[in-house]
Amino acid sequence: MRTLIRAAFLAAALAAPAAAELPDLGGREVVVVTENAYPPLQFVEPGSGKAIGWEFDAMAEIAKRLNMTVTYQNSSWDAMIPAVSEGQYDMGMDGITIREDRAEMVDFSDPYMRSEMFMLVRADEDRFDDPAGFAALEDGLVGAQPGTTQFYTAVYEVLDGDEANPRIKLFETFGASVQALRTGDVDLVLTDATAGYGYVKANPDAFKLVGEPMAAEDFGFIFPKGSDLVAPINAAIAEMKADGTLDALDVKWFLEYQLGM
Amino acid sequence: MTPETPHSSGTEREFPWWLAAAAAIGALILWNIATDEVYARILATLSRGIGMTAFVTVTAFVLAAALGLLLAVCVLSGSVILRQTARFYIEIIRGVPMLVLLFYIAFVAAPALVAGWNAIAEPLGLAPMQTRDLSLMWRAILALTIGYSAFIAEVFRAGIQSVDAGQIEAAKALGLSGWQRFRLIVFPQAIRTILPPLGNDFIALIKDSALVSVLGVADITQLGKIYAAGSFRFFETYNVVAFLYLVMTVGLSLALRGFEQRMRHRNSR
């Protein structure tokens, strides 16, 4: 199981040349939006009801280093990119994959995390255990949310590159696609390591993870186009990569923290 | 929206087995909440969304009823411009799905509204407004208000038209002004036709208020979505979500039915 929790992290080698001085934003107020629906990056802890996670810790550290005051607001994923794009919020953090089409709407920070895709299947699945095996299974169905990395990976790396392939069933939320997997409506859901591990742990009789990790995705914060926050945040991310702060957060949230109940 | 429940003939009353079955299922979920820690935690989390659901529903309903009454009066007015404008609004809004209306108001109409306000306010020396001053919650309430005002306008129109035209002529003959005719003659009678479908619209609005979760407004549905994402427990979470809505909708539906029966009884005396 340990190998499955492994999320591939950005090497410290990517770190920018050690910036000696970070800019001082003089206590500037920054409104950050998140949905709290992506454990362990940001989620509501089942017992306490508090919003916690990797990104909250990282943001608190960035705020400390840049001397800025962060207030959090909530939005749904559907609303997030349009809302940040129109300046409703100064910044968005939601485990957002850096993609070119999104960069037309918003500015991205440098990547702060790399995540890989795993295959989540029913616990009794014995017809396939890798992407090729699934592709060969003609009546096999895969569930995904439209426009997500999981969707594109399913289309281009697992199936035949046809986005209208009838073997892909679309769902409104990631959770709904997992529920469809459980009930047998689909046979495969692609997931990042964290969510996949969380589901397997909460429902060990229902799910298992199979196969090798697939396509990696880089996460970045989003800002309204032309935001003057991008440069200072990037500098802080670079410093936190270089001094091991991000690695420490990875250990805390991906290895030590016990997700689910 | 919801068609009015057909009235039973009223003589023989059937035992409401459906209600007994619903109550049994409700009791089962309550028992789960009392004995199962998972269910208890879910309820504790979701109950923080009840206030938001109630606030969004009640605020949108009150505003929609006010706007709907105004629209109904316009539709029935003597002015062609008012009639046609109100008819245009009602037909267009009723033809758009609520979810589409919600996204449209939030990301097209609201920014345009702010830009329009600024175009007027800035030359007057007023502080310009930012889009962010209009929170997603208020945009959601605005969308529900606009959507439901069109339905409610039709409810009011039908109610007002149900009043016998002869009475209005009689009131005119007695020299009552337009406002007096409305307040003293039309409204007290129309309200009896209006209330049952208006109540149904309120119940429909409770259900449609769940749509505001697509904007991230922290209502029962959104908190359920978040809780399920964080705990990986969809089955239990949505059991409780459905339970909370059913308590409100079935409860109100029963209350409404009782109220209608009392009103009919009073009328038939």
Radius of gyration of chain B: 22 Å
Low-confidence stretches of chain B: none
Please, what is the oligomeric state? heterodimer
Distance between the termini of chain B: 31 Å
Largest sheet of chain A: 9 strands, mixed
| Number of helices, where a helix is a run of at least 4 consecutive DSSP H or I residues of chain B | 9
- Principal-axes geometry of chain B comes out as flat
Q: What is the terminal-to-terminal distance of chain A?
A: 18 Å
- Report the strand count of chain A: 12
What structural category arises from helix and sheet content of chain B? Answer: mainly alpha
Provide the β-strand percentage band of chain A: 25-35%
Sheet with the most strands, sense and barrel status of chain B: none
Q: How much strand of chain B?
A: under 5%
Level of helix content of chain B?
over 70%
Radius of gyration of chain A: 19 Å
Which class do the helix and strand fractions of chain A yield? alpha/beta
| Number of contiguous helices of chain A | 10
Please state the overall shape of chain A, judged from the principal axes of the Cα atoms.
globular
* β-strand number of chain B: 0
- Residues in helix, % of chain A: 25-40%
